[in-house]
Design brief:
Number of helices: 1
Structural class: mainly beta
Distance between the termini: 15 Å
Order of helices and strands: HEEEEEEEEE
Strand content: over 45%
Protein name: YD repeat-containing protein
Largest sheet: 5 strands, antiparallel
Shape: globular
Strand order of the largest sheet: 1-2-3-4-5
Number of domains: 1
Length: 116
């Protein structure tokens, strides 16, 4: 069964986390953060393909994480006084899950994908 990928609009993302998503050639949206120790995190999402990609790179250029996933159904962004978060829900056949990314002040990624 097809499910729509629900994402906030660019203005809402700017209001919630203070970042405006860039547009890449494919039409995907891209957000980038710099970590406190020189690390960087790029997060892209494409509503048509229902896909997301998170790439975490160390300050010296080593790739620490390259996560690509299809079947996204909802993207949420949030910010508190102490942190910025991105969460993405997924539903893929018999599996469902969520990726939660803390984009600031410290980078972290939690990924769960389980049978339903």
């Amino acid at each position: 069964m097809y499910r729509e990928f629900i994402v906030p609009d660019d203005e809402e993302i700017l209001d919630l986390i203070g970042e405006w998503p860039d547009t890449v050639d494919s039409g995907a949206r891209l957000l980038t953060w710099q970590g406190s120790e020189g690390d960087s995190l790029t997060f892209s999402y494409d509503t048509l393909s229902r896909s997301v990609r998170a790439r975490w790179t160390s300050g010296n250029g080593d790739e620490l994480l390259d996560l690509y996933r299809e079947g996204a159904t909802r993207l949420r962004v949030s910010s508190t006084a102490s942190a910025t978060y991105i969460s993405v829900e997924f539903h893929m056949g018999e599996c469902a899950g969520e990726v939660v990314i803390q984009a600031s002040p410290k980078l972290s990624v939690q990924d769960r994908l389980l049978y339903v």
